[in-house]
Design brief:
Structural class: mainly alpha
CATH topology: 434 Repressor (Amino-terminal Domain)
Oligomer: single chain
Distance between the termini: 24 Å
Order of helices and strands: HHHHH
CATH architecture: Orthogonal Bundle
Length: about 80
């Protein structure tokens, strides 16, 4: 099974893992919602919603911005 766009759209394992990974990476970087939002050019509320399991999957643009802002290079906390 792949982690491609279809799996994200269908709520597959990659989508289920994304919001907690964003939360863990932000916490590991010791950044508040406001700090990372300022760094990536999004509102703190938008970043907060990206970490909520029931708020829906964050946009690909936001995920890329968070990836750059957190220096994750596409990885997760387990990769560091």
């Amino acid at each position: 099974m792949s982690d491609g766009p279809a799996e994200f759209a269908e709520g597959g394992s990659a989508a289920v893992a994304l919001t907690p990974a964003i939360r863990r990476l932000r916490a590991a970087a010791n950044l508040s919602h406001a700090e990372i939002a300022r760094r990536i050019g999004y509102s703190p509320a938008h970043v907060s919603r990206a970490e909520c399991d029931d708020a829906g999957l964050p946009s690909a643009d936001l995920v890329r911005a968070l990836d750059r802002g957190l220096g994750a290079r596409g990885g997760t906390c387990q990769d560091f």
